[in-house]
Structure formats: C-alpha cells, structure tokens
Amino acid sequence: MTSRRRGLFLTLEGIEGSGKSLQIRRIEAYLKDKGMHCLATREPGGTEFGRALRRVLLHKGSASREPLSELLLYLADRYQHLKEVILPALEQGITVLSDRYHDATRAYQGGARGIAETAIETLALSLDLLEPDGTILLDLEPELGLARARDRNQLQGSSLEEGRFEAEELSFHKAVREAYLRLAGRWPERIRIVQACGTPDEVFSRITPHLEEWITTVLGKGL
C-alpha cells in the first residue's frame, strides 16, 4: 500500500469491558518514556466525521439497521480515520495506538452479526485498508467483561450515549469473543492474546513483552 513507514501501527482489541482504553493509555505512557512519539486514537471516533458516526453507531436508543448498513458505517469511519489520522502520523515516524480497528469489524459484524468474511475482506481490499504491525487482544470471559462495561457506563452516566453493544445478549458477546480467538489463531504473529483478568498492573505486565518484540522486529530498535 505504501513504502515502509517509520512509525509503528499497534491496535488493541477485545470484547466490551476488556480494559482497552485503560491499557492503551499505559502503553502510550510506556512508549513515550522510551522516547517514542505516540498518538493514541480510537474507532469509531478518531476524526470529527468519526465522532458523528460514533453517536449513530453506539447510542443505545439509535434506530435499527441492517448488519450490512452497520458494516458500511464502520468502514466509512475507518477509511476516514486511516486517511486523516493514521497514515499521516505513521509517515511522520509516529507510533499509532488505536483502540479498535478492522479486527473489531471481523469479530462484531462478521462473527456476531453473521456477515460473510468474503464480503468484509472484499470491501477492505477495495478500500486498501492497512493491517496493523501488531495487535493486542485482551481476552476474558464475556460475563465478566459485560458486567465491567455495564458498571462503567452506569458510573459514567453513558448507558444511553454508548451502551448499544452492552445491551446485546450474552450470546452475542460470546460470539464476538470466539471470533476474536479465531482471528488470533489465523494471524498468531500479529495478534497476541493477553489475559485481561487481574489488576491493571498485572495485565500491563503481560503486554510489555509483546511491545518490546514488535519494536525490535518491526522498527529494528530495542527498548
């Protein structure tokens, strides 16, 4: 797609309540302490356009939509995010950390909504979507993740604003997790499974060896 970038492109994935937002802040601080320039972003919502879509996609009371319609909205957000934020940062040598990216679509719209993999990948190919250099998959039991996410939304008063997926049945979240694990089996070098149970410090200690490996192998520079 492009010539070799100097920046590292890392993503965090996982079911609702797996702790992605917390750990991405820790990763950002950790890499900055090592002298790396970092940009933390998210999907949906990494651009102004994406923030408008986020309200549509995640609002608990939003209008119903066909799975394919939902897929196209996420891809629109991703394409804008890639062109406006991710690629320009990578080309400047900045490490990009994204809270969710295309694996989320593969897991949620593919694994849980039932859209065929061929349809998702054909659209991704037509958009020339960039694959990350490395992906941390924060894995835990859906029951625990869902309880965490619902508690968080209640505490933050965001159950309506961003509670659409938390309102799904447990079976939906189990399907998302199973899809993520299949993706990790398909791309084991890129997607690393990290157990998300335990304290934030314990989880982060499981993440750091993967960060060190990717920086060494992808950027050719040790920590």
Summed up:
This protein is 55% helix and 12% strand.
User: If you compute it from the alpha carbons, what radius of gyration comes out, rounded to the nearest whole angstrom?
Assistant: 17 Å
Overall shape: it is: globular
Please identify the oligomeric state. Answer: single chain
What is the number of E strands?
5
Order of helices and strands: EHEHHEHHEHHEH
Give the biggest beta sheet. Answer: 5 strands, parallel
Helix content: 40-55%
Unreliably modeled segments: none
Structural class, from secondary structure content?
Answer: alpha/beta
Quick check: average pLDDT?
89
Q: Please, how many helices?
A: 8
Strand adjacency order, main sheet:
2-3-1-4-5
Report the sheet-strand fraction. 5-15%
Q: What is the terminal-to-terminal distance? A: 28 Å
Q: How does the SSE layout of this entry go?
A:
Layout: E1 9-14, H1 20-33, E2 38-42, H2 48-58, H3 67-91, E3 95-99, H4 102-112, H5 117-126, E4 134-139, H6 142-156, H7 170-186, E5 191-195, H8 200-218
Parallel strand pairs: 1-3, 1-4, 2-3, 4-5
